[in-house]
Amino acid sequence: MKKATAVALTLLLLGFEVSLSASTKDNPAGRLLTGRVVDHQDAPLAGSIVYLTNTRTRAVKTYIVGKDGQYRFPSLSLNTDYELYAQYNGRKSDTKTVSQFDSRPNVNINLRIDTK
């Protein structure tokens, strides 16, 4: 009886460990959000500021874009919606949403600002 219980407990723990390692192996650090900030001619807008808002906590993260126009927000929660926009010289891009129901671990969103 004790041996059967020990075997059952071992199998249960092994199954839990396998499922836990599979879930963390798929995406150990959360979601990665990347993209570019460009003008109407697809030229990068260096010095743009990208704003990322956690819709649950309303916390805002920012990223100042370099010469290549690229931004990067790593380790975002998979269970949270985010709103994203960029600003350059008083002009603003459209606001985009990253949904918690979008299961992609890597999301790429380009933001366009009309500088005219």
Describe the protein's architecture and organization:
- The protein is built from one helix and nine strands, in the order H-E-E-E-E-E-E-E-E-E.
- The longest helix has 25 residues, at 2-26.
- Strands 2, 3, 5, 6 and 7 form a five-stranded antiparallel β-sheet that branches. Strands 1, 4, 8 and 9 form a four-stranded mixed β-sheet that branches.
- The protein has a single domain, classed as Carboxypeptidase-like, regulatory domain (Immunoglobulin-like), CATH 2.60.40.
- The chain is of the alpha+beta class and 116 residues long.
- The termini are far apart.
- A hairpin with a 5-residue loop joins strand 2 (49-54) and strand 3 (60-64).
Give the structure's gist in a few sentences:
The protein is α+β, with helices and mostly antiparallel strands and 116 residues long. It has a single domain (29-112), classed as Immunoglobulin-like (Sandwich), CATH 2.60.40.
Q: Mean pLDDT, nearest integer?
A: 84
**Rg calc:** 21 Å
Distance between the termini: 80 Å
The CATH level-2 architecture is identified as Sandwich
Secondary structure topology:
Blueprint: H1 2-26, E1 31-38, E2 49-54, E3 60-64, E4 70-76, E5 82-88, E6 91-92, E7 96-98, E8 106-108, E9 111-112
Parallel strand pairs: 1-8, 1-9
Antiparallel strand pairs: 1-4, 2-3, 2-5, 5-6, 5-7
